[in-house]
Amino acid sequence: MLLLCGCNSGNNHQDRNITMEAFSGLKTPAFVLDRHEIDACLRKLVREDAGATLADRQTCNYYRSTDNRLIWVSRYGIDHRADTLLSWLRQAGDMGFSERAFEVETIMQDLQRLRSLKIGPQGISQLAAQLEFRLTKSCLRYCYGQRFGFVNPQHLLNNLDVEKSDTVKKTVKYRGLFDVEMDHPDKDYAAQVLRKVRNDSLDTYLREIQPRDSYYSRLQAMLPTAVSSEQRKRIIVNMERSRWRRHQPIATEGKRIVVNIPAYHLYAYSDVETLDMRVVCGNVKTKTPQLSSNIEWMEINPQWVIPMSIVETDVVRHAGDTAYFTRNRYNIYERATNQQVSVESVSRQMLLSGKYRVAQEGGAGNSLGRIVFRFKNNFSVFLHDTSNPGAFSRDGRAVSHGCVRVAKPFELARFVLEDPDEWLLDKIRIAMGLSPETPHGLDYVDSHPEAKDRNKLIGYVPVKPRVPLYIIYYTLWPDENGVLQTWPDVYGYDEVMWNQLKPYL
């Protein structure tokens, strides 16, 4: 409005047609960003980077591409998006990590030099390239870790214990130790994050990917008061476990069963009761795997099909020994026909061929005890009773071949059933060799004095609805009263994970 009023005289302003070119003579070469020089510096940084993490390798892949776009640097320098990222990276200490893992101090110093034009001898294009590379690398490191975990347990734990190796064929088979379905970054994840940066939605995204687990928050609150380096280490490792995004998160409502291996304990929760009991887990050579599943059915007096690993180590040397097989109530079956064959007719080589299975008859003395709780998994493990209850009195209870033995099998059976009638419970009691509690049950026992008849009273019992089961490994975990307890690192997983986390410490 003022401009229009000032033009009444009809005289044009002398600078009316001025352009940016008029200022070209004021350019200072030292402060001019050169894209070609920036690209050359980025290629050099890529060549020198060790690619210690997946995020580092994805950063290098991006800047190795000939059609990449600069993410942070523009003709105006570097804007507030870098400050947004730094505000999150400066919280690394709250996670137990070092800011050095994200090059926070270096980025802040370089950013200050660029914005104050105190460039130094390296030149502004090289400084801009360094900031571009470090901001992207640190951003991806943080996002990959907070969104998916800084350690990939499936890769780490499933390549830990050698089960078989063939030095001639140079092949190695590893024992499966972790089978929990969880989120993993796909090949486009880095590009997705960088689009968030370009669109200035980074702050919103960084808020979204923070762990929401209340247990994670509980551990994080403990970190500043850790009284020793060992306790601090334990907190950080268990916080990492809580970053893993399970497809079947540990439920906090309804019926669910949690077996924590280091605690040698099972916790069964519902909206009306809590049941807890001691358990026996796999020994160090045959570790109990971590998994998530659902208990779908129970078997009373189950037959025990002996795993091939046990056949190879324990049974095969007794091939042809009828006294051994009779004493242990072992039978041999041809897999193709499911027909029982005589012990004398099966040689050592036949047992090792995989064409035969060895199974122990159900009933008293069976290694599975009187009841087994079945759930789908890739390891042929399950929860079951035992014929050797003495192991429950030990402090260290890692003595099984991988399955989980439970100290209160009938109580667990009652828990997983939805409103069972008393006769159903009594049938389970009688078949398990326990005393009945109903008149109907007492009459049945009186009229069936033979144990073999009682054993067959009930066999298959469906569990409907299915009960979620989580076999976990936490060395800091609440006990049955909700009090956070420290448990021994029985399989050494804490140490293995700690070594993987060292780049961030």
Structural class: alpha+beta
Shape: elongated
> Termini separation (Å)?
61 Å
Question: Mean pLDDT across all residues, rounded?
Answer: 91
What can you see in these coordinates?
The chain is α+β, with helices and mostly antiparallel strands and 505 residues long. It contains 19 helices and 20 strands. The protein has helices spanning 2-5, 35-48, 54-64, 80-89, 104-116, 124-148, 153-157, 189-198, 202-208, 214-222, 229-243, 308-315, 322-327, 348-352, 409-416, 422-431, 439-447, 451-455, 493-501; strands at residues 73-74, 77-78, 162-166, 171-174, 178-179, 256-260, 265-269, 274-282, 290-300, 304-305, 330-334, 340-341, 356-360, 371-375, 383-384, 398-400, 404-406, 460-472, 476-478, 484-486. The strands form five sheets. Strands 6-7-8-17-15-14-9-18 form an eight-stranded mixed β-barrel. A four-stranded antiparallel beta sheet has the order 10-13-11-12. It has a two-stranded antiparallel ribbon with strand order 1-2. The longest helix has 25 residues, at 124-148. It is elongated and about 105 Å long. The protein starts with a helix and ends with a helix. The model is unreliable at 1-6 (pLDDT under 50).
Produce the secondary structure layout.
Layout: H1 2-5, H2 35-48, H3 54-64, E1 73-74, E2 77-78, H4 80-89, H5 104-116, H6 124-148, H7 153-157, E3 162-166, E4 171-174, E5 178-179, H8 189-198, H9 202-208, H10 214-222, H11 229-243, E6 256-260, E7 265-269, E8 274-282, E9 290-300, E10 304-305, H12 308-315, H13 322-327, E11 330-334, E12 340-341, H14 348-352, E13 356-360, E14 371-375, E15 383-384, E16 398-400, E17 404-406, H15 409-416, H16 422-431, H17 439-447, H18 451-455, E18 460-472, E19 476-478, E20 484-486, H19 493-501
Parallel strand pairs: 5-9, 6-18, 8-16, 15-17
Antiparallel strand pairs: 1-2, 3-4, 6-7, 7-8, 8-17, 9-14, 9-18, 10-13, 11-12, 11-13, 14-15, 19-20
Helix pairs in contact: 2-3, 2-6, 3-6, 5-6, 6-8, 10-11, 11-19
